[in-house]
Amino acid sequence: MQKLIIKGKKELSGTISVSGSKNATLPILAASLLAKNIKLTNVPVVKDIITMLELLRFIGVDSKLENKKKSILLKNNQKKINTLAPYKLVKTMRAGVLVLGPLLTKYKKAKVSLPGGCAIGTRPVDLHLLALKKLGAKIRIKDGYIFAEAKRGLKGTKIKFPSISVGATENALLAASYAKGKTTLINCALEPEVKELMLFLKKLGINIKTSGRKIIVEGKKFVNNKVKHKIISDRIEAGTYLIAGAIAGKKIILNQVDPHFLKYEINILKKMGVKISTKKNSILILKSTNLKKINISTKPYPGFPTDLQAQLMVLMTQAKGISTIKENIFENRFMHVPELKRMGAKIEIKNRTAYIFGPAKLTGAEVMATDLRASVCLVLAGLISDKRTIINRIYHLDRGYEFLENKLKKCRAKIHRIK
C-alpha cells in the first residue's frame, strides 16, 4: 500500500496551477446520460473521475480520457444502455448515485447501489429519493440497492427540501431536466459546482431559472446532443493550497483560480493574519506570522465549507489562543483529530465543536488518512512538523487531488511517495 513521506520545516515558494473541479465534473458526467456527444475540458485526472467513467462505460456510454489535454469525450448511442449502477463501482464514490436521476428520467428505470465514499457521516440519500418520489417515481430499497421506476415518465412538480443538500439538489436537477412540465425546487444548494451543472444543462437546452435558493426547471425531451464545456477550477483544492501557503509558505502564487469562489475563505484567513492579495485569475500568499485565533462554523455555500475544515484546523494549531470549529454538515468529520494529536496538536472535541489550542509544536509521526480531506490535512501538518511524517492509506488523497506531490515539490516541499 502506498504511503507519503514528508520532511517538514521546509519553507515553500513557487507557483501552483489549480486543477479543474472534481465536484463540478462528476454531476456533469452523470448529465452526459441525457445527451449523445459531450466534450469536457479542464478535467482533473483523479480517482473519482476515473471511477465515474468506469461506471458510465458499464452503463453504456463510450468515453475517452485524454490525460495530457485534460479532456473527456463522451458518446451515448442509446442502443446498449444498462440501467444498473453496481456496488463495485459506487462503493468508493458517493457521486455514483447521481446517475439515478438521469437514468430514471430518460430510461424510466434504474437500479443503483447505495453509495460509499468517505466515512465522514451517515449522508443518507433520503433527500434524493424524496425528490424523485415527488416527481412520480416508485422507489424501494432492497439488498443495498435503490430500485426506481417511472413507467409513464417523470412529471414536473414542486419540491421543498427539508435541509440543504448538494447531491439531492443535483439529482433533482438532472431528473427534472427530462421530466414533463415545470419543476420548482425550493431550499436548494447553490454551491459553484451546482451552478456549473445548471450552466451545463442550459447548454443542453434546458430552461432553468433561479431566485435565491429556488430553482425552476422546464423539462425537455429533446436536448442539444453535441455540447462542449470547460470545467471551473477546484475551489477546495485552491483553498487547500491557500492554507498550505499560509502555514508553510514564503511566497506562493495560485494560478487558474477564481478568487470570487473563495471570498469567504479568504476573509477568514485574513482575519487570522494571513497575507493574501488577489487578481482576476490568481491569488498571492505571503509568509504569515503571529496568526490569530478564530471561531468558525461550517455551513452550506456561501458559508465556510466542511471540505476545508480539516485543513483550516492545521492552521489553527499555529495560531495564538483557542480557536473553535463547529461542524454542522457531517457528524463524523473530526476523525483526523486523533492523528493530528499524535503529531502534537492540542485539540479537544465537545459535541460537534473542536477546540484547538495554539500555538502547538508539531512533530512528525506515522499517521493514517481516514478520508479525502483528512488525508490532505495530514500533509499540511507534515509540512510544518519536526522530523519525518509518514501518511498511510493515501488512496483517499488520490480520489480528489491531482498531482499533489508534484505541485508541492515545485514549491520546494520535501515530499515523495513510496509503495
What can you tell me about this protein's structure?
Strands 22-23-1-24 form a four-stranded mixed β-sheet. The chain has a four-stranded mixed β-sheet with strand order 2-15-17-16, covered by helices on one side. Strands 4-5-3-14 form a four-stranded mixed β-sheet, covered by helices on one side. The relative contact order is 0.16. It folds into two domains: 3-19 and 233-418, Enolpyruvate transferase domain (UDP-n-acetylglucosamine1-carboxyvinyl-transferase, Chain); 22-230, Enolpyruvate transferase domain (UDP-n-acetylglucosamine1-carboxyvinyl-transferase, Chain, Alpha-beta prism). It has helices at 22-31, 47-59, 87-90, 100-107, 126-134, 166-177, 192-203, 235-248, 263-271, 309-316, 337-342, 372-383, 395-398, 404-409, and strands at 3-7, 12-17, 37-41, 62-66, 71-75, 84-85, 109-113, 138-142, 145-149, 158-160, 182-186, 207-211, 214-218, 226-230, 249-255, 275-278, 282-286, 295-297, 321-326, 346-350, 353-358, 366-368, 388-392, 414-418. Helix 1 (22-31) runs parallel beside helix 2 and helix 1 (22-31) packs parallel to helix 7 (192-203). It has 419 residues and is of the alpha/beta class.
